[in-house]
Amino acid sequence: MKPMFSVILAGTTLLVAAACAEEQHFPFNMPREKPDMPLSAAMERAYDAYSAPTYWWNELFSKFRFTELEGLDYHGGDGTISRRDPSKVVKANGKYYVWYTCRRTRTPPRGAEGGSDVIPSADWDLAEIWYATSEDGFTWKEQGVAVPRPPKPKVGWRSVSTPDVLVWKGKYYLYYQGFMEMSGKRGDDCPVTVSWADSPDGPWTPCNEVVIPNGSEGAWDQFSIHDPYPLVYKGRIYLYYKSDFNGHYEMIRATGLAVADDPMGPFEKCPLNPVLNSSHETGLFPFKGGIAAMSSRHGNELSTMQWSPDGINFQVASHITLIPLAPGPYVPDAFTGTDDGRGITWGLCHFTDIGPRDKRYSVIARFDCDLSLDKDDHWMKDPEHYWPPEFYYYTGLGADAKEQLKQEARQDLKKR
Ligand code: AAL
Fold first, then answer.
1. In whole numbers, what is the pLDDT of the chain averaged over residues?
2. Residues 176-223: pLDDT tens digits?
3. N or C end of the chain, less CB within 10 A?
4. Of 309 and 296, which is predicted with more confidence?
5. Is pLDDT of 321 > 50?
6. Phi first, then psi: what are they for 294, rounded to 5°?
């Protein structure tokens, strides 16, 4: 080959290579479908691991905005009235209804050592299930007790707490934790029981039986069945619940599933339990043909939205910055048995451990979001939050830890 010709050929090869390399650039406009080109692990994951490659298009991504409720009194925040763990919100009789743990005790919680027949050990000890209604979702009127504590030794004699609601064949069912010992004595051990009514205003009839029993000895859920959360799915009652396992020091919280054809049971626990490897106080709702979960506190997958095509096999769908705690969403299609779940736009949640250590109590608040197929709120999809420095410093080091780190830093500087 003549030298001139080989120079031209080499130049052309370089140009072609450059052009090909250019074609291989990831495009400026994010493709909706995964492009057929080499991708980094992160970009592969963007397409394969989430509901959509960007949160702007991810129907299971949302910012959450929180609002203080109007109409509920907390006795000046002295710790003698506490409301927490709201149920799903249900629409009935032209109103919204919510049920929740309500503690009205002569003193705030005093721990297991300070607890007695009338003094609560924990925020949810010596509690009852109360309910409130609202016409706008912001101002709530407390209507009084729905389920009181039954006399000893019935299920829940020590405390009834953490309810959630099911509407099934025209009747209402409240599932809740029934404590038969003071919380904190050994752990937070309890099973789940149920009361039913013809109307959301009651009267409620307790079944006085355990409907979701603790697991057998050695099982992950042998001690506690918490946060019962029923939905109607595939024509059956899918009741999700949380348990604590792996001892106290390195406790793991995860979510299981029990399924029944009758609200009174028997509930059959899913053999693959736990179905979420994380989460505490999980809120769930039908979404498309499957079930979506708000995996809030605890675990590798805390603060995520998850989705399963079958109510059992959940995958992370998005990561959330400020997820509501103990969410009780308004789920219009919670009990319709839909296979086209539309999602949620608001609900109630709680804030706990308010006030000084000896006056602790909890409040119920409202959250708004766009986790709905029928809404497209760009404002809710922008994940940025600008919190004041005080927000971050609130979780600061204690004085001792700070002093120790200062000393370590000084010693480190003295090292050669
Ligand atoms: C909550 C729930 C259950 C626990 C306690 C009250 O967050 O997980 O209800 O028992 O804390």
1. 93
2. 999 999 999 888 999 999 999 999 999 999 999 999 999 999 999 999
3. C
4. 309
5. yes
6. -100, 100
Q: Dump pLDDT digits (tens) for 22-78.
A: 568 999 999 999 999 999 999 999 999 998 999 999 999 999 999 999 999 999 999
Return the residue matching tokens 């080109």: 37
pLDDT (tens digit, 9 = 90+) per residue, 255-270?
A: 999 999 999 999 999 9
Domains in the chain, start-ordered, CATH in brackets? 65-393 (2.115.10.20)
DSSP string, 305-369: EEEESSSSS-EEEEE-SSPPSS-EEB-TTTTS--SSEEEEEEEEEEEEEESSGGG-EEEEEEEEE
> Using a 6 Å CB cutoff, which residues line ligand 1?
85, 124, 161-162, 177, 188, 226-227, 242, 280-281, 326
- DSSP code string of 243-307: EEESTTTT-EEEEEEEEESSTT-PPEEPTT--SBSS-SS-EEEEEETEEEEEE-SSSTTTTEEEE
Instruction: Indicate which atom in ligand 1 lies nearest the CA of residue 253.
Output: 8
Q: Regarding beta strands 95-104 and 192-197, do their DSSP bridges make them parallel or antiparallel, or are they unpaired?
A: unpaired
* Pocket perturbation via mutation, ligand 1, pick of 103, 162, 244 by most ligand atoms within 8 A of CB: 162
Compute the distance between CA of residue 284 and CA of residue 314 in angstroms, rounded to an integer: 12
Sign of CA dihedral 327, 139, 372, 88: positive
Q: Which residues contact 329 (CB under 8 A, 6 or more apart)?
A: 88, 89, 283, 285, 294, 344, 346, 347
Q: What is the mean pLDDT of residues 281-289?
A: 97
Cα(227) to centroid of ligand 1, in Å? 7
For the CA of 123, the nearest atom of ligand 1 = 6
Give the DSSP letter string of 291-320.
EEEEE-SSSTTTTEEEEESSSSS-EEEEE-
3-state secondary structure of 239: strand
SS3 95: strand
Over the stretch 16-25, which tens digit does the pLDDT of each residue have? 444 445 568 9
Rg (CA), the chain: 26
Distance CA(338)–CA(231), nearest Å, equals 10
Preceding omega of 153 cis (within 30 degrees of 0): yes
In sequence order, what are the residues at sequence separation of 6 or more whose Cβ sits closer than 8 angstroms to the Cβ of residue 193?
155, 156, 160, 175, 176, 178, 206, 207, 208, 209, 210, 211
Q: How much is the pLDDT for 56?
A: 94
